[in-house]
Design goal:
2 domains; 53% helix; five-stranded mixed beta sheet; 5 strands; 11 helices
Length: 233
């Protein structure tokens, strides 16, 4: 603790839960209510985003976007549901009605088969006069996935994976990597299928440091460098 923050008294659990949290909630509600007044003027885009957590819990988030602003509306735990077109259509119909049918200009979802079927069902309903747009990020993910099936790409990705797995499985090689490359090699994934390409980009940007690492005295003086995994790396 530094001298600057040594005199600061932290909030109690009671203050956080019973004073500041309700205050923040009240201010956020007022902000959202203020934006809702603009719905008739701009119309909204309804965004539907599915997400599977580390414990395989499937959550569908619903977001409203308009006039450069994004508002989170709600999340639905769909883990125990059969996420077919019928169920997706039911959810989308409900959230469109919540905002007001006349206020929804378009809906954005991923391009999964269940969403495509729900899209046709909704677009064929004369009550819903709106556009349906596939998620750009999801489309790019699928393109990258298909690119990854090409033999020439698959081989390069596999070789990069071998190197990174070996280096990150040993404390000595990881520390040597960070010293020579001035940072880590593997970056957090931004999208599901882009991870491989982000890693390859990292290999390219740090190739001078990697070459220095694999030709250094420290590397050749390390016993694991002569192992099968070390020689392959």
């Amino acid at each position: 603790m530094t001298e600057v923050d040594s005199g600061i008294k932290g909030l109690t659990v009671y203050e956080v839960m019973n004073v500041y949290l309700p205050k923040e909630k009240s201010e956020l509600k007022a902000y959202i209510d203020e934006l809702k007044v603009l719905l008739d003027s701009y119309g909204v885009t309804r965004i539907c985003d599915g997400w599977t957590g580390p414990k395989r819990k499937f959550v569908i988030n619903f977001i409203v976007y308009y006039d450069g602003r994004t508002i989170f509306v709600k999340s639905i735990d769909a883990s125990k549901e059969r996420n077919d077109a019928k169920y997706i259509y039911k959810l989308l119909k409900e959230v469109v009605k919540e905002v007001g049918i006349k206020n929804v200009v378009q809906i954005v979802t991923n391009s999964g088969s269940n969403y495509k079927k729900a899209r046709l069902k909704m677009l064929n309903n004369p009550r819903f006069q709106l556009f349906w747009t596939p998620c750009v990020a999801h489309c790019i993910d699928l393109m990258l996935k298909d690119m990854g099936k090409l033999k020439i790409v698959k081989i390069v990705v596999e070789r990069a994976r071998q190197v990174s797995i070996f280096v990150y499985n040993h404390g000595f090689s990881l520390n040597l990597l960070r010293e020579k490359c001035r940072g880590d090699l593997v970056k957090p994934n931004l999208t599901r299928f882009a991870t491989n390409y982000i890693t390859l980009q990292s290999f390219e940007s740090k190739k001078v440091g990697l070459r220095s690492m694999f030709t250094s005295e420290e590397w050749f003086g390390w016993r694991e460098a002569e192992s099968l995994g070390g020689r392959e790396a």
